[in-house]
Structure formats: structure tokens, C-alpha cells
Amino acid sequence: MAVIMLVAGAALLVACTVVFAFQSWTIEKRFVSELAVSGQMVANNVAVAAMLKDAEKANQVLDSLRALPQIVFAGVVLNDGIRLAQFGKMGVPEMELAAPAMSAARTKGRRLFISEPLMWGGQRHGTLFLHADFRDSYLELLKLYGSIIAIALAASLLLTYLLSERLQNWVTSPILRLANTARRIADENDYSVRAEKTGGDEVGTLTDAFNQMLTQIHAQDTDLQNAQSKLREQLSELELEVSERRAAEEALRESQEKLLQTSRLAGMAEVATSLLHNVGNVLNSVNVSGNVLNERLRGSKIAALSRVSALINQHRTDFSAFVTHDPRGKKIPELVSTLNDALVEEHDDLLAEVGVISKHIGHIKEIVAMQQNYSRVGGLIERVAVEDLLEDALRMNTVSMLSKQFQITQDYEPVPKVEIDRHKVLQILVNLLNNARHAMENSGRADKQLILRVRKCGEQFVEISVEDNGVGIAPENLTRIFAHGFTTKKSGNGYGLHCGALAASEIGGALWVHSDGIGKGATFTLKLPVTALSGVALAN
User: How much of the chain, in percent, has pLDDT values that exceed 90?
Assistant: First the structure.
């Protein structure tokens, strides 16, 4: 009933509003038309008085307009600007008594301004000005029409109410009978009772379905009673199964939580894997240098110097005679000079190898310090330069890149700094560079090329592109490349790109890929917002 009353009332209200608006417009047009005709008639009557400049006659004609309560001002102005006659007060500043070229009528709100030229004998002798205010008359008529419309609306709503009440009884009576039957069955647990079908409409269909359900319940109730004894016997077993099931559910829940945690840590693992890979390469170089140092020290000439020193100490008392007459002593100066040259050369070589080791150890310290720096700032929003982020990601991959002879092209346009969580962006970039490296290593190409681009995307975003000429991506995999667990690597886990896409979305950016197919390389593009998402504080 409420819905029917609301719909009917809304429809009637719209109709009454349209009728009311139309009547308002009709009343206004009628007033304008009537007063325009009255103005023409008065202008014809007062034209002679204007020609003769008879003020008394003009006032008598204007007085006839006092019978019209809507007219609040009437005036006759001669061509030379003299006001020949008038009554009332002109209260509108913009209605100056200027003679128009022809008849004119202008409305403003519920007021009407009329000007009529006073013509006699083919000549114009002045102008008649009328100012009518029909607001009171307009309101009287609108009240009348409003009362009629209100009465019609009330009568229509009353009729709607009576009809909807009859309709309610007709619709709800079968449903109430069906509800009473259901309540009786619930109270008495007597499933042999059936509901009475009253017709073939939707309620009748519901009654058939209800009776069919009762039949099935009755049969199931009988079976249930027969099975109660068996259920009692199996109760202890069921309790045990329930306990085991709860334990399994708890284990499943813990597994799911661990899986979620694993997924969240996947991005960090990508960075850590890259760091360990590069640190491992550097350590290999350190190991090679260490082996060289070991071999050089084992074959050092220092042992010969020890033997010379022992021989000199043995002949310390007769050293001059030993050097002068003994064949072994005569060779000591030449041997010392030779040993000196060899030791100087050996010293320089060892210093060079130590320098290489120091350089590699410094590189390891730089990588570790960079990782520690990003670990400290994880989760904070900072204003950073995109170029610095790319350079940090490259340094984490520099050794592996240079060792494979990759050609790296850096095409950076000037872009504004971005407000982001640099740790998340670094995870994304390191993963993209690792993927590019693997794709080029597996391509078998001799000209391995990596192109890094930075572009401005409108006023609010910056784009970073990582383009390689590696193995490429099959068209059917482009739509699945960011799905959780999807990977084409034999040792991949499918977390990297999925977590990268999620991280890009979390910071208000996006990550997508383009590839022309297998063997044609791939381009991954990361879009970053210049300004952090609203509600995120910027770190000092």
C-alpha cells in the first residue's frame, strides 16, 4: 500500500505541477494581453488631449484607468518631455519616461510596462506610459487553482488508498493462509497437513511447491527417526571427526596465513636474490684474487732472501774475505740485486691484487649499505628522483650485467621528483631488471641491449620503461603475465610481477607490458604518481 500510494501520489503531484505551471503561464499571458488592449484604447482617447495639450482632459481619460486595480501608474508625456498628466508613482528606476519608436510592452516579474505613441492626424504628439502590477490578482487566481488542484489530489489519493486496500486483501489473503498452515505445522510437527490451493497464479505455484516440500520433509522425518539409533552409535566417531576437522581447518588457516606472508615477502625476496647474486659474483672475483695471492706467496722469492741472509750471518766475521775470495760470496751482490728487483715486482703485483680485492669488498659494502638504507625507509613516503631509483636498481645488478656484456642505454628526460615508498618501487625495478637479464641471457643473441627510459606522462605521472631484446612474450601470455603464480621460468615462482603490479597499484600507479611476440623482446612500463595518494603523510 505504501508503494502504491507513493507512486500514485508522485504521478498526481507531477500532473498537478504541470497543470499549475500551465495555469500560471496562461494567467500571465491573459493579463498582458488585456492590459495591452486597454493601453491602446486609452492611447487613442488621450491622443486629442495630447495634441491640444489639454491636461484636464488627459487626466480625465487617465482617471478611467483607476477602475483597473492592477494599474499603479499612468502618465502622458509630450514630445518635448513635458508630463501632461499622470496618476500613481513610477517606482521602477529603469523605466525612464523615454518615448519609444512604437508600441512596447515589457514584463519584469509580475509587473508590466506599456508604452503607446499618441498619434493624431498622422503625427505623434506624445507617449502614454502604463505600469501594471498584477501580483495580487495573480495570487488570487493561483490560490483558486491551487485549492482546486489540492482537492483533486486529495480525492485521487483517497481513491488510490481504497483501491490499494482492496488489492492488498486480494493479494495477501492466500499468503496469510499459507503462513498460518506453516505456523500450524511448526507448532504441532504434523507434516501430514497440506495447504489449500486457491488459484493457478504465483501463489498457487508457491502452494504446490510448499506441499511438495512437506511431502519430502515427511518422508525425511520418517527416515530420520529410523536413523536416530544409528546416529547415537556414531556420535562418538563424529565427535572425533569433528575434532580432527577443526584441527585440519586450523592447519589450513595457518597455511593460508603463511601463504599470504610468503606472497608479501616475495617482492623483498626478489631484491634480496638480486643482491645475493651480485654479492656472489663479487665474492667469486675476490676468491680468484685470493688464489692468485696464495700462489704468488707460495712461489715468493722471499725464501731465497732468507738463504742469502743465513749465508751472510754465517760469514759475518770474515765477510770481506768471503765476498772477495769465495765463489759463493762473489755472487751475493748480484743475487741481492736480482732478489730486490724480483721482490719489488712481486710487491707491485700483490698490491694490485689487494687493490682488486679492496675494490670488490667496497662494492659489496656499497650493495649492503644500499640494501640497509632501503630497509630502513621501507613504508615511508619520500620525495625522490626517479633517476636515482633507476641508478640504485642498476647498481644492484651492475656486476651481473657487465659480466654478460650487456649494452645499456639510459634515455632520461627531465621529470619532477615523485612522492612514493622508494622500497616498493625499488622492488619493482629490481624485478624488472632481473627479468630483462634472464630474457636476454636465454635469447642466445650476441647483441644484448637494455634500454631504460624515463618520460613525463601528463602533469600528474612519470613513466619508467625497461625494454630488452630478449626472448619476448607469447601473445596468449600477455593477459596472464601478472597473475599470481604464473611464470615461464623453470625456477620461477610467479610472485615477482604479481607483487610488482600490486605494489604499483598500492602507491597509485600502474604496471603493464608490451611485446610483439616470441623472440622480439618486451617492454615493461611502470607509471608512478608525482604526488602521493591523499591521506598518506610525506616523510621529512
Answer: 11
